[in-house]
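Entry: TonB C-terminal domain-containing protein
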Amino acid sequence: MRIIFSLFLLCCLLTNGTAQQKSFEGVIDYQLEAKSKNPWISDVSIARLLAIASTMKVHIKQGNFRRESAKMLDINRTDSNRQLFMFKGIDTFYYNAPAVTEEEIPEISQSEKIVTIAGYNCKSLTIRSKNMITTYYYDPALFQDPAYSNPADKTSFTLFLKQTKAVYLKCVIETEQFVYTETAFRVAKTTVADAVFQLQSFPVAEFVFMSHLKLPVFKSGDEAEWVSYVQKSINADLVNKYVKIPKGEKAAQQTAEVLFVVLANGTVGEAEVINKKEIHAALAKEAVRIVKESFGWKPATVRGEKIDQLMMQKITFRIAEE
């Protein structure tokens, strides 16, 4: 009887301890890194495009998050159904409109392999969706109550939180274009004031990426300048040799679609013809030459910072009977 009572008492103590488990409150500092997967685009351009600084400080309390770096600030509060963020130098809070996509069931896998991060022994959880692979590293000792999250939220972070009930110490996001990594280097369990999560009185607007991006332009941006440059640069002998007018016709043409990158310094980097099967190889080579020798480009900018940007231009080789 005494043994049964002791076991009952132990179970009560364990249950009570679990019920009183407190969500992590404190500050975590992360090292940030962005790597381009496109050899034509620099890591610096990806970082500027995503507004990524070198480090980020995150305040956490009862499901509220404040993430701040030298490039941006975002605040996620439990009393709001949307996350607000702002870019340094722009006095507007933005939110992302809900994505209108087909219902997708992501693939979730866990690993028990231990990785030490900021002094904590972390397991990992990977979430694979159609366009993204996200891996979170976490120590269950850093408890985070998933009850604070929005039940309607289907983001990978919410899925991670529901699966692990923990704060992540490393996050690796991989897409076709880039790999983005956050790695904790300092974890401080400390009291965080509620005022940290208060929002300043700034306008709130839906985030539209293209309103922050200015694409490259050739010289003044007048299309006529580009057309004039191409016409003056085409080797007429190549056109006469490789563009043949079919019998019964009065003209013929071949068009090269050239994909290229305008670098942040305004020069043209790599270039290639993407419709090689539709054009003679000599003309494809000529189209690449014309694009790569074009000078006077104004590079793309995102929120005022120059970046590498992919572009596509058509070069048409035309011949007609005189």
